[in-house]
## 1
Amino acid sequence: MVLGALVYVHVPRFTIHDSPFTVLLGAHTSTNGGVSSSLPRAAAIGATAMQIFTKTPNQWREPAIGAEERQAFVEGVRGSKLVATNAHDSYLINLASPDPVLWTRSLISFTSELRRCEALQLNALVSHPGNFMDDRASGIARNAAAITLALEAVPGDTRLLMEMTAGSGTSIGSTFEEMALLIGALPAALQPRVGVCVDTAHLFAAGYDLANAYDDVWLRFGDVLGFERLGMLHLNDSKVPLGSHRDRHELIGEGAIGAGAFRRIMTDPRLAGLPKVIETPKGDDPDASDRRMLALLRRFARG
Ligand SMILES: [Zn+2]
Ligand SMILES: [Zn+2]
């Protein structure tokens, strides 16, 4: 029975506050004013899933989150409709860098990201694989070495989800095969704590045609990585064409991917239990824009 299967997809991953059939849907939400300031914003858009930055993502500064703020956040989440929460790490981090100074700095920053996730009891940390700069295989090895050190330094329940990239420049992780290589390079004991985040805009820009070959794309994902590795989805349309290897998010249904693929995603039983978070342009009124996007996706989910 389909409904029974859904329960089994849900239960191992998250504590369900509401019905186990809740669609885990939300947006990247601003923490401007402190991490707990994201909670009323998430409530205002009816979010059941939420992604945040736990620091300013384009600065190296690593602010500690005070005990009071941490408690306000953890208790706030508990009292909210949020079922799945995750952080996205800083844009400056490059765990694949051949420059030992940048690699070390990235490792320290990434470890702090993980620590804040554990402190805030977030379900996952989403991280972009780095840029190899010199040689792809060495870059993957450096990335895996850094992830290993960080996960060993910060044991806990927060899952690390490596995000599929658009494949610009020397970025790692724009193919399922390469993502499988990266995860496969981690010690076996750590691998269960690591999964994949699929960003639809990145996938499309990397050359996976979600618009015209939806089934083929997911068949390949299942073959190469396996759905048990899939931890969450970033739902974004793309301003740029298939295979353009650029990362430009567009409103759902208004870009090169188009509404059809998102309709499929929202009714796909393989993706039913997964948190789905939008990172679409917010315009002048973030709440209004996000609310409109989520309403559209909920409509798609109802079929
Ligand atoms: Zn990202
Ligand atoms: Zn993303």
Note: The pocket of zinc ion (ligand 1) is lined by residues 88, 128, 163 (CB under 6 Å).
## 2
Amino acid sequence: MERRTSGVTACTAVVVGIGPGDPGMVTVQALEALASVDVVVGFDKGERAAELLAFRREVLDRASAGTPPRLVTLDDPQRDVDGAYAHAVRDWHLARAEVLERFLVEEVRPGARVGMPVWGDPALYDSTLRLLDELNARGRIRVDVEVVPGVSSLQLLAARHGIVLHRVGGSLLVTTGRRLREGLPPGIEDVAVFLDRSCSFTELGDKGWHIFWGAYLGMPGEVLVSGPLGEVAEAIVQRREALRRERGWIFDLYLLRRR
Ligand SMILES: C[S@@+](CC[C@H](N)C(=O)[O-])C[C@H]1O[C@@H](n2cnc3c(N)ncnc32)[C@H](O)[C@@H]1O
């Protein structure tokens, strides 16, 4: 049905978690949601993401059973790597919002359902939902939002190591390598760390920490390492660097647990 709100066109963004890279972990609801859209849109994250793009393509092919929806890849604006982190991210999000807004206003018919596949789950370290909030705040287009959850890489990490992410009735801090380097709040004993290019666990010192690490989870070449941090940290650093060089990119995350 075509909708217009006081001259502002409207479409529906269907934000779909497609899991951590294993075709078997794409949910039935994710496939159904992607089969329901008129067009699929995503940002081009460059050469190093070719394997991730191939996986997205494979998921779309499966969803559509032969007639894939139109896939539009938007140029991802460059992020200022020299500027202060918070400002650089803010500017990058605004630039992305402009690119997406232009596409939705100029190239999508009012009332269309626009698929936005998201790696893992959209609620963890992904900016798609914030981007859509930004678009709605700007008011040039109204975007209704539907979210389909996906299996997160964090869930897969726990499954692969056969662990619960927290103690009985305990807490779990989910954070980034950057935040870990800034220091942990007092009393934290279980920490899940995403987006850590610098192996920040090496700065914790051996204070009874145990690490459960995983790279390329759910994908060919998956690697798992676990053990007391003091004993395995250096091996993880070296393994990570060797894998990154060999494959050209790496996705890894870990849980730190104080024993
Ligand atoms: C931009 S975040 C996206 C997280 C995603 N929304 C999720 O739910 O897994 C990317 C980070 O997630 C982690 N990650 C995502 N997929 C992964 C995988 N298959 N194996 C290991 N880590 C992964 C890595 O820490 C990577 O740097």
Note: Confidence is low (pLDDT under 50) at residues 1-5.
## 3
Amino acid sequence: MKFTLKIWRQKDSQSKGKFAKYSIDNISADSSFLEMLDQLNQKLITDGGSKPVDFTGCPVHFDHDCREGICGMCGLYINGRPHGPDKGVTTCQLHMRKFKDGDTIVVEPWRSKAFPIIRDLIVDRSALDKIIQAGGYISVKTGAAPEANSIPVPRYLAEKAMDAASCIGCGACVAACPNSSVMLFVGAKVAHMAYLPQGKPEASRRVQAMIKAMDECGFGNCSNAYACEYECPKSISVTHIAKMNRDFLFASVCHEKEVISSGS
Ligand code: SF4
Ligand code: FES
């Protein structure tokens, strides 16, 4: 297969970026999107050895790690959609057979104020880490693993928690949202612990702290577009956002009562 690629090139967060055009052929329909980019980079390296190149002739920088849909590193905006045209897959799992031979493919980084561009297609997603640091944990004494059946968990709750825990932190929900909202990610992270007995003691403090961190990082609010759920490679449900909002309201009211009853 052959393709024309229009790829966003940007030297660093301070420089102005632009699209650069590349032609590539001899791509197997069974290649993944990242393997296709590997082939392009190999070509750019080979061509660069024989003739002088400007910045856009250097290999394209893009993030990746597991290439198995697990780590969430490989987010690319492909033809106007986070992770490209396939449903329920990450960019590393997207295959070139999903495109037509001769297609022009436009590749951009995630676009969000909270995700500044580091270089080309790589963005700084450390805002997600800040949200996790604010409350995405439970406080327990470490030591030997406890007996697995010491805290029974109803199966329906375990399944809900596992569904939420399948979020890989890729940031596609932010890229898809017209408001750059990260509420699907935060909702999933809040829910996966709130459903389990181990996560309940800190549930109120957690939801308040994570929402505060979310606001401080500059993400927008949910506007019910549902684009996040549609584009999420793990099909995380927007019902987690609804649960998070309910938990936040409950936590705020209870906190308010505590303040009134303590007279402070
Ligand atoms: S909710 Fe989905 S799109 Fe958002 S970070 Fe998690 S896996 Fe990625
Ligand atoms: S490289 Fe890990 S999810 Fe794509």
Note: Strands lie at 3-9, 18-24, 77-78, 81-82, 104-108, 117-119, 122-123.
## 4
Amino acid sequence: MLFFDKLQRHTPTVSFEFFPPKTPDGWAKLYATIAETARLNVDFVSVTYGAGGSTRENTVDLVASLQNNLAIHAMAHLTCLGHSQVELSKILDKLAAKQVPAIMALRGDPPKGETAFRPHPYGFAHASDLIGFIKDGWPHFKIGCAAYPEGHPESFAAGEARTPDRDIAFLKRKQDNGADFAVTQFFFDNAAYFAFVGKARAKGVTIPLLPGIMPMSSAKQISRFIALSGCSIPEALRLAAASENAEEAGYQFALNQCRDLLAQGAPGIHLYTLNQSALSGRILAALRDEKRV
Ligand SMILES: Cc1cc2nc3c(=O)[nH]c(=O)nc-3n(C[C@H](O)[C@H](O)[C@H](O)COP(=O)(O)OP(=O)(O)OC[C@H]3O[C@@H](n4cnc5c(N)ncnc54)[C@H](O)[C@@H]3O)c2cc1C
């Protein structure tokens, strides 16, 4: 069953996210991860789109190869950043010709050193515009979009409490323009996700909101996310960072997060793998053993 059919039938999906590496070593590691992913039979894999340069072409080629050579349902991320409508059309034509079934339509972040997003003069300023463009020209694509349980960083001033309230109207616009589902930014506090889903549903957002989970595998990594992510941090994650076996504690934390999300009705789990399959694969295996997915 295609991943989107599963979503529509309320059968939970599990998906992995990869990024195109920049070094030969990074590619070697990713190929090993992909071989393992093919064996795991995940519902779909998504590949991020870089801020510029050759990694952008690599996204298209990698997604096409996953889809056609390995029969893994693949979703290509695509951003407004730096592209005219003509360029976007060419990329979408190429993805369509390669039978890629889904596009994750995003705006993109301001390039390094810039504080505000500047749209291309012949492009789009917001993801919702790109979504409408894809829906009009390539209606067969399934379209994903981004959602932010704790608010997009530009949606509140420095020092202000984080809230998704301002973004939800724009999420609704993404849905109205053709988005079929959303994937959330990672978060560590499931209460934030469920509060966000409640608010979105109250404003007429009906599409599946797939929670994005970041499994972490070392005390250093967990501490870095606690310090820098800006996310709400549950006590259990602080304890994991301080644990003598932080790798195992990080895995258990992410697994418990997934268990609770699925038990409370989340439509699936999207794992930010950071191009490594070990932790994500363990989580998937455990969820399958427990018949949660
Ligand atoms: C699951 C996921 C995957 C991602 N993958 C990538 C990737 O592959 N490559 C990459 O470069 N980045 C990626 N990003 C990051 C993303 O590009 C940034 O978060 C970016 O800053 C916003 O993208 P968006 O699509 O949410 O933009 P938008 O929906 O356009 O929102 C951006 C900001 O503008 C506001 N806004 C939206 N519409 C309007 C409007 N009509 N009028 C006024 N304000 C508006 C929103 O509230 C928000 O503050 C990803 C993010 C997520 C959550």
Note: The chain is about 45% helix and 15% strand.
